[in-house]
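Sample 3 of the quickstart, ligand N-succinyl methionine:
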Amino acid sequence: MLRRLAMPLVSPFRTSLGVEAARDVLLVQMEGPDAVGWGECVAMSEPLYSPEYVEGAHAVIRSHLLPRLQRRRGQLLADEVAPLLSAVKGHQMAKTALEAAVLDADLRAAGVSMASHLGGVRDRVGAGVSVGITATIDDLLETVAGHVEAGYLRIKLKVEPGWDVEPLRAVREHFGYGLALQVDANAAYTLGDAGHLSKLDEFELVLLEQPLRDDDISGHAVLARKLRTPICLDESITSAAVALDAIDRGACAIINVKAGRVGGYLEAKKLHDCCFERGVPLWCGGMLETGIGRAANVALASLPGFTLPGDISASDRYFRRDITEPFVLRAGHLVVPQGPGLGVTPDLEVIDEVTTFKEEIIWQVT
Ligand code: SMG
Ligand code: MG
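Result:
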């Protein structure tokens, strides 16, 4: 079954791309032979972060992806999903949701947690928080203070031209240099801004995330040589192979890993393994996930190469009421679920309350 949910956010989230006031979530609920599996599609409502968007993901799943899985006879295994879907170009987030649902169903039936299946080595993961662009510097300082008090291990500020040096100076003056601080531009700058971006070096940031356009790997390599601040790529990294190419070309020193952006948790694991081997630090990105996507991210972040705190905040950072048991911040960490599959239980009553659309798709296993 495909479901669309409308989840109000506790406060609007502004980035260089626009403002999100509610999360329009697409969920895949797959009835496996022995268990129900869940997958969350992380596409946003508009195609601004990436070319994918919720309506489009829904359409491509219904018309092009599910039929390719349904043609396969017998019980479908999670590692067959990506090869079966590979003829369809792009649509990584839609593909990821399907693979995640199949994987969750398989693992729940087998009694194995997603973390142990992927090769997790930690029972809790460090939590960072992403702070949107605020109306004033005072609002920003107040927001950051709340997150620091809550115990988040690092703060990420969204930046854009006109909202970078000044807010960073204010945060450093107020909280000092002991605070782990990084910024994310969501591709809002050009190489012509290199001189301006080098002013960020004095703030001793952990990293500068995706300053330039998604398709500009060579531009990032040029910029990286001009800055002291390490460059981290997000939007540009669409597969393990692209990640290796970007690293080899000196375009980034750190990678933000999002399964939805690379086409699945299994591809994300592959990306992890290559980067871990090369000693490239990783952290797990976020797309304002509900408990379902968050559980999968927490499992992924428990792999050994995830050495920096991720954008995996507690559920209450975004939602007053989550659709699974909430993830709670404990001494700056989230506990990795150990139960079968995602290890969290989707609350059908709550899910039904926020569901705006349901589409039953008959799964013909012959
Ligand atoms: O889940 O905490 C989260 C969101 C983290 O900032 C975050 N995500 O570019 O990394 C990113 C953004 C993408 C979503 S907002 C457009
Ligand atoms: Mg980002």
